[in-house]
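Could you join me in thinking about how sequence relates to backbone shape in a protein? Label the sequence line and the structure token line clearly, so we can match residues to local backbone shapes. Once you have written the record down, we can walk along the chain together.
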Amino acid sequence: MRHSVYSVLACAGLVSTALAQNFELWLEPGSVSPSGLFTISVYGDADVGDGYYSAAFGLEVTSLSGLGSVRDIEWSPGIWAGFAGDAGGYQGDGLHSLVWMSLLVIPECGVFFDCTVPYGTLMGTFTIDVDPVIAETYQISLIPAPQLDPSLSYSFEVVDEDFSNYWVDSQGTLSLVGTSVSVIPAPACIASLLVCGLLNTRRTRDGVPI
């Protein structure tokens, strides 16, 4: 009788593990350059599998006050991606279209070699170009692939190290963790001093005989 109980509990534990499939994609911002450029890096994690296999998503950058403007967004996949693509690039109004990437499976990989891409590895980078003159905070969010292309059923796929099992976020829960970036223009007086310095330099040069 005890053996039966233990068997049932063991099965229940396996079912719980199978159902508890949680996937996460999150963003980490870089510093803002004086020209208004900053990077947003994408990372992933899951409680099943051993590493990345594929992913697809878009990006939305929102000016919280409505005063700031996004001039361009470019995408660069991580070096682990054997295949990658960009459906349409920057669409305007802070929206970057669907990007996708997938691991190139090496035939020699299997139970004897761990060829998966570990969770927490850089998945790719968006480079965002905003107006550097206007003080603004931008909210940056990932867009799930199915929202951009209904023919796609998931945004994140993971695999075990011997490539015998695959899991996708549509089988569980996907968490998308966004971020925000504040752009603070340099004081106008500093800019004026720099301009005056350039003018003085020009006058000095003009006064030198050739």
